[in-house]
Amino acid sequence: MDMKARVFITLKSGVLDPQGKAIHHALEGLGFSGVNDVRAGKLIELDLADGTGDSEIEDMCRKLLANTVIENFRIERLENA
Amino acid sequence: MKTAVIVFPGSNCDRDLAVAMEQVTGRKPAMVWHREAELPEGVDFIGIPGGFSYGDYLRSGAMAARSPVMRAVKDAADRGVPVIGICNGFQVLTETGLLPGALMRNARLSFVCRNVRLRVENSQTLFTSGYDSGEEVVFPVAHHDGNYQADEATLERLEGEGRVAFRYLDQVNGSARNIAGILNDAGNVLGLMPHPERVVEPAHGGTDGRRLFGALLETVSA
Fold first, then answer.
1. Domain of A43: which CATH number?
2. Nearest CA distance, B174 vs chain A (angstrom)
3. B9 phi and psi angles, rounded to 5 deg
4. Does residue B13 have an active-site annotation?
5. Residue A80 pLDDT > 90, yes or no?
6. Residue A7's domain spans which residues?
């Protein structure tokens, strides 16, 4: 059975996000006035071998996928994708 | 003095750094490819150059920091061998955990490429003993991700322990407290965004960077 996981990487709150800010400005420039704030992040999709445990995915996040000095990560598993 | 320059796919200041080091030491550095698991025997100074290692994939410096050669660099740094990381090299050092904090996208998003004025904040280090504390120098910068950030406790510690080596005199990239370069707690690892290797001979339009390499030579061979 195929197993997939999605890793969402976001900047920690309090960390300035220049890209999010620029996107926010651009949205306002297009006339979208109802946006209070924008934060930009990353989505990484992993296609995993059967039996890959949560702790292993967390390990991947800590060792490479996220820089935990400035970023948080959240793992979402998609069974039978 | 036996020196080494680490070369990653996408490094582009490796030659400039090697030339600067050779001019000061009189010996060509060993150019060490990222896949090497070991450094040349008895190396006593390591340079990590600027560029766009691994195309800046994932985060600037993230891939390079996990390459085999960086394990050897980390071991050498732990033994006290002086290591300098310039620009992308600074990013690699923070990603490796040899230096605290992180280098984020410049606050105004644009690539910054110009000469900047810096203040030497601490002249009592391996790398800065050729300068006076408070002295103003001009080094070029050329980066997109030079916005140094760390939590308040880390910033306070860096300041309190004299580990801010260089500070921008003007706003350049949004760095916390205008930090341009920092040291590790043992004082043998320096990371900085500006390029001292690009100002070592008069033809460069300035020679302020030369004393950095000269100081190292004196300390290491003393």
1. 3.30.1280.10
2. 10
3. -60, 125
4. no
5. no
6. 3-79
Interchain pair A18, B107: CB under 8 A: yes
Expressed in percent and rounded to 5, the helix, strand and coil fractions of chain B are 30, 25, 45
pLDDT of B186-218, one tens digit each? 999 999 999 999 999 999 999 999 999 999 888
User: What domain range includes position B186?
Assistant: 3-221
The pLDDT tens digits for B55-105 are 999 999 999 999 999 999 999 999 999 999 999 999 999 999 999 999 999
Q: Residues A39-49, buried b or exposed e (16+ Cβ, 10 A)?
A: eebeebebebe
Looking at the structure of chain A, the number of domains it has is 1
pLDDT at B201: 93
| Interface predicted TM-score of the whole assembly (ipTM), two decimals | 0.84
**pTM listed for this prediction:** 0.94
Minimum Cα–Cα distance from B107: chain A residue: A18
Mutate to test the interface with B, among A9, A17, A42, A69 (most CBs of B within 10 A): A69
Domain count, chain B: 1
